[in-house]
Amino acid sequence: MHRIDKDTSGLLIVAKNDNAHINMSEQIKNHEVKKTYIALARGVIKENNATVDMPIARSTKDRVKMAVSKSGKNAVTHIKVLKRYDGYTLVEVNIETGRTHQIRVHLAEIGYPLVGDSVYSNGRNPFGVEGQMLHSMRLEFKHPITGKEMKLEAKIPEYFEKVLEELER
Q1: Tens digit of each residue's pLDDT, the chain (169 residues)
Q2: Residue 138, SS3 per DSSP
Q3: Can 117 be counted among the known catalytic residues?
Q4: Domain region containing 90
């Protein structure tokens, strides 16, 4: 089914029965579920929009980590800048694939690790947040039983709002 990383806030899909599980698994496999995240990255991303298309596999150096690797599975991440701050960028992220730690790995690989990400940002956490500043903000899919178009949204958590307010100052 659909998972989110430990310490990522927001929405996830949970099936209540086998039929719903099979249907949702098919939708995910066929890239029919649109997953939108909001994240705060360290550094100022210059492009307004970017696509990161780099395969991801388990790291050969650290079994806990994932890494960009030629031998990995296809992974595609679309990034849209929402706001630039002094030293940080707020981004909206859509993923075509759902690899483990995909957003965190891709952003760190291109030089913009997520704020608070203890695994991929060398432990730097200037705001003292617990967990990475990555929020599963929107899910769009067809209801597994009725087929009705579903669009679910979750507001960003209070700690995330507070960091953004601090950056506004």
Answers
A1: 456 777 899 999 898 999 999 999 999 889 899 999 999 999 999 999 999 999 999 999 988 899 999 999 999 999 999 999 999 999 999 998 889 999 999 999 999 999 999 899 887 778 988 889 999 999 999 999 999 999 999 999 999 999 999 999 8
A2: strand
A3: no
A4: 9-168
Output the CA–CA distances (angstroms, integers) from residue 141 to 30, 83, 103, 114, 146, in the order listed.
Answer: 11, 27, 20, 27, 11
Residue 13 · residue 152 · CB < 8 Å: no
Please tell me which residue in 5, 7, 53, 62 is annotated as part of the active site: 5
Q: Tell me whether residue 143 is in a domain.
A: yes
* pTM (two decimals): 0.91
Residue 41's identity, in one-letter code, is A
Answer whether residue 3 is part of any domain: no
Q: What's 159's domain CATH number?
A: 3.30.2350.10
Residue 90 lies in a domain: yes
